[in-house]
């Protein structure tokens, strides 16, 4: 880090992976804007950051809405500082088998993951280019490789990877890197909801997943946060256009 505090934006920062990433970046010295659809839901993350001596701002925004994104990023730049680090983490699932999947299920997942990442990145990149420094980390998933019942989510996460690689090509000359993290099984509210939906107790669900993972455990949000911390660091300036599978074993 330089002496001047940099500002980071984490979307979907109210809970789970996003909250862990926001807290980690704050502990590394960033001022962190925590963006989520419900601004009040960001309070826990912001309070934890401030209690630890960090600086944070809760911002409510719909990442799939152009005007909402523009207003949110402008507010961050004005109230917290011009953002040069962006974590595109906001995401939803609308799982179903193809023949049961509605157009709304497809569109809502695409809008949050892909349109949201595009709108946020387009709004923030100007601050990165001006600063001649930027770090973009997009959240993909091992589901990008294909996962039954997730044709929408898998397609969106695969799209995030192509989006990331193209960003690295376009923005690299300005000192901006773009990388993607593809988590495997991470213990969050989202995976707990998946277990409930398929009718399996969460502990049993985690145990079954861990048995298939070489390191013999499921992931924690902090595992993703630690990877994001590296990718946003000064030392990661020669790492760009990469997809890092943080899944406890090889996935590619």
TrEMBL record:
Signal sequence region: none
Ranges where the Ketoreductase domain occurs: 6-184
Reactions it catalyzes: a (3R)-hydroxyacyl-[ACP] + NADP(+) = a 3-oxoacyl-[ACP] + NADPH + H(+)
Domain of life where this protein originates: Bacteria
Keywords: Cell wall, NADP, Oxidoreductase, Secreted
Annotated compartments: Secreted, Cell wall
Pfam families in alphabetical order: adh_short_C2
Similarity comment text for this entry: Belongs to the short-chain dehydrogenases/reductases (SDR) family.
GO molecular function (one): 3-oxoacyl-[acyl-carrier-protein] reductase (NADPH) activity
NCBIfam families according to UniProt: PRK12826.1-2
Organism (species): Rhodococcus opacus
Organism classification: Bacteria, Bacillati, Actinomycetota, Actinomycetes, Mycobacteriales
GO biological process, one term: monocarboxylic acid metabolic process
Name of this chain's protein: 3-oxoacyl-[acyl-carrier-protein] reductase MabA
């Amino acid at each position: 880090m330089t002496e001047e505090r940099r500002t980071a934006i984490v979307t979907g920062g109210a809970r789970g992976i996003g909250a862990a990433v926001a807290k980690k970046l704050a502990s590394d010295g960033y001022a962190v804007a925590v963006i989520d659809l419900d601004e009040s839901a960001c309070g826990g993350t912001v309070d934890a950051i401030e209690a630890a001596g960090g600086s944070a701002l809760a911002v409510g925004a719909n990442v799939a809405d152009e005007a909402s994104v523009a207003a949110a990023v402008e507010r961050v730049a004005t109230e917290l500082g011009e953002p040069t680090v962006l974590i595109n983490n906001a995401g939803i699932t609308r799982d179903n088998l193809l023949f049961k999947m509605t157009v709304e299920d497809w569109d809502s997942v695409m809008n949050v993951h892909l349109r949201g990442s595009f709108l946020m990145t387009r709004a923030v990149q100007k601050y990165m280019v001006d600063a001649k420094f930027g770090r973009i980390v997009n959240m993909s998933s091992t589901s990008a490789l294909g996962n039954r019942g997730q044709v929408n989510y898998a397609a969106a996460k695969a799209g995030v990877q192509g989006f990331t690689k193209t960003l690295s090509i376009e923005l690299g000359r300005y000192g901006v890197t773009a990388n993607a993290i593809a988590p495997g099984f991470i213990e969050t509210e989202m995976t707990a909801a998946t277990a409930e939906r398929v009718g399996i107790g969460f502990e049993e669900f985690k145990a079954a997943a861990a048995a298939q993972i070489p390191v013999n455990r499921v992931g924690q949000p902090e595992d993703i946060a630690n990877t994001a911390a590296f990718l946003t660091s000064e030392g990661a300036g020669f790492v760009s256009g990469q997809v890092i599978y943080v899944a406890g074993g090889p996935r590619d």
